[in-house]
Amino acid sequence: MDDVTAPLSVELPNIAFGAAEKEKRSEPNEASTSTIFIGVAQFRYRANEEGFDWFVTQVWPLIRNKLPMARLRLVGMPPVRRVLARWRKTPGVEVVGQVESIEPEYADATVAIAPIQRGAGTKIKVIEAVAMGLPCVCSPHAAQGLDALSGLLVADNSPSFADLCLSLANDPGSRALLTERGKREIDEHFSREIFAGAVGRLLHASLALRK
User: Fold this and answer.
1) pLDDT value, residue 16
2) With contact defined as beta carbons under 8 Å apart, do 147 and 198 qualify?
């Protein structure tokens, strides 16, 4: 009987796209009386559209009631026209669309949100937001598979989600602590060096089998 070699496999860590590994982020660039929340996604994808529509219609009014000057910037391919029209009519919501560089958007923001309720795969945008130095409020679904990021704030209903967003907006000290923790955990679990090392081990093992 011919020898059968088991297929090689290695678990590759998720990493953020773009210039995700940056120095410790300071507070937003512009001095402003407003708090900027940011959501980054391909909003034409149905699961993203549904999650953010829930946030805009159910959570955002609760936040604006307490923070009338708060702004929500939604960055990425816009949703279908019907949903886009509803978002644009909502006070404080800015549908930015696609941008050439995401870094300035994160730099000006205060809190990231990931209200996705369903869909497959790890939510890379959560990793990206933390890597960019932002605390992130997530749905339970968006936080799945990201246990290594202990600073994620998770809420499963509208009032709780709004309360977590408001607590971060009003507490620079907590934001700083979460930023520092997130940077450390990104370096430990989701860095390019760790990814490159895993790929290198896989390639080395593959070459060894050919000898």
Assistant:
1) 56
2) no
Which has the closest alpha carbon to 172: 138, 135, 136?
135
Q: Cβ(137)–Cβ(160) under 8 Å?
A: no
On the CB side of 60, how many CA atoms lie within 13 Å of its CA? 29
Residue 194: CB partners within 8 Å, gap ≥ 6? 13
Q: Measured between alpha carbons, how far is 14 from 146 in angstroms, rounded to an integer? A: 9
| Segment 80-87 long-range contacts (CB within 8 Å, at least 24 positions apart) | 80/44, 80/49, 83/43, 83/49, 83/53, 86/53, 86/56, 86/57, 87/53, 87/56
- Give domain limits for the chain: 36-210
Compute the residue count for the chain: 211
List CB contacts of 187: < 8 A, sequence separation 6 or more. 21
Cβ burial of 60 (10 Å; 0-12, 13-18, 19+) is buried
Statement: 36-210 belongs to CATH 3.40.50.2000:
yes
Q: For tokens 């019907």, what's the residue? A: 82
Per-residue pLDDT of 167-192, as tens digits, reads 999 999 999 999 999 888 888 876 55
- List residues bridging with 114 in a β-sheet: 138
